[in-house]
TrEMBL record:
Protein name: Acyltransferase 3 domain-containing protein
Keywords associated with the record: Membrane, Transmembrane, Transmembrane helix
Transmembrane stretches, start-end: 41-57, 100-119
UniProt keyword Transmembrane helix present: yes
């Protein structure tokens, strides 16, 4: 049923865009005319999400490395600009651009891991503690 609703929703959006939108360009082919990989990645993500879980999504969900990277991804997202800046400020240390990219990746993952272990995970535990305390209060008795 979920798969059917997803397909109906996609077809409805596609029809509305083609027939009702003034921004529709019939000669534009996103896959052929775009040099950016965004439309292709979005299409792959769409295929992943319909009817999940499927063999394609299991490639990602059963992978230990990608699962761990998913835990650290917020920290990696927050810290990667600083890691890029650190490497750019010390660019004389790198003879090849590939070495600098590897250093940024390694530094970003390390900072993301440390952020997860020392900040994100303790804050999630603290939030869960407060949620349990709030849920244990019987507000009906307080109101009487």
């Amino acid at each position: 049923m979920k798969f059917l609703l997803t397909i109906v929703n996609f077809v409805t959006c596609y029809y509305n865009h083609r027939k009702l939108s003034k921004y529709y360009l019939p000669n534009l082919d996103l896959f052929k005319d775009s040099i950016h990989p965004g439309p292709r990645i979005a299409f792959l993500l769409f295929l992943m999400l319909i009817g999940a879980p499927n063999p394609f999504t299991k490639l990602f969900s059963d992978n230990y490395f990608l699962t761990k990277m998913g835990q650290f991804s917020f920290g990696i997202y927050l810290w990667h600009p600083m890691c890029i800046q650190i490497v750019l400020n010390n660019s004389k240390l790198f003879t090849k651009e590939f070495d600098a990219i590897l250093c940024v990746l390694g530094l970003s993952v390390l900072c993301g891991y440390l952020f997860y272990v020392f900040i994100e995970k303790p804050m999630m535990n603290l939030g869960n503690y407060f949620i349990q305390k709030v849920n244990s209060i019987d507000f009906y008795k307080i109101m009487l």
